[in-house]
Known about the structure:
By secondary structure, the chain is α+β, with helices and mostly antiparallel strands. It contains 2 helices and 5 strands. The protein has helices spanning 2-15, 67-80, and strands at residues 20-33, 38-43, 57-61, 83-94, 97-105. A 5-stranded mixed β-barrel has the order 1-2-3-5-4. It is globular and about 30 Å long.
Amino acid sequence: MKKALYLIIVILSMSGNVRAADGSFTVSTIGSSNNTDTIFIRTLEEVQNTTCENKKLLRLPHTDGSADRLFSLAIAAQAQGKKISVEYDGNHCIDNGTVITVFWLDHRF
């Protein structure tokens, strides 16, 4: 019984290492890369709580059903001088950029 309880505690503590975070960012550059098969956004602000090397780079795979919408939203945010708000997993990187899980345009910024 003690071993089973210990294993459950270890497994739960390991699953707690997922770093979900969010932030609002000024779009500096928007692009698409065939090399990494992603949409990318370079930001003026650094992405916090991420293990990815490039702290000013957000990515979303082309295979994600929202990739074209992210591209459009990033262009709109840049054109309007607004920030794009995103949620991301700080442990998930593609080519040194943090992978976006949710995105939106926030009227407050």
